[in-house]
Amino acid sequence: MNKLIKNNIILIKKSKFLTFLYEIDNLEEIKEIINNLKIEHKKATHICYAYKIGVNAKYFDDGEPAGTAGKPIFNVIEKKNLNNVLIIVIRYFGGIKLGAGGLFRAYSNCASEILK
Q1: What is the pTM of this model?
Q2: Domain segments of the chain as ranges
Q3: What confidence tens digit (pLDDT) does each residue in 42-68 have?
Q4: Element containing residue 97 per DSSP (H, E)
Q5: Residue 114 burial by CB count (10 A; 0-12/13-18/19+): exposed, middle or buried?
């Protein structure tokens, strides 16, 4: 059964980043969690995530430039050697483009902060 461990909100250049940390046991839980968040956050610009369950691991950029959202989230999971975890970062665009480097740092910071 999925368990929300923690959530957080960070503002970066008028964009709002909502981060969610879940303990998960299987891939079906991930689909359910993401679908529920898509319904709850219909106006979100991007819903990016990364997960690791045993040998199964994946990340998703949801329209952000390739490698700037899901990958930095996944890098944090790997660096911390976590397992059975899903980190989701929902972005509400604030009107100021962050650039590839800014996005990478923003998503990485969100994932790091949620684990503190």
Answers
A1: 0.94
A2: 3-114
A3: 999 999 999 999 999 999 999 999 999
A4: none
A5: buried
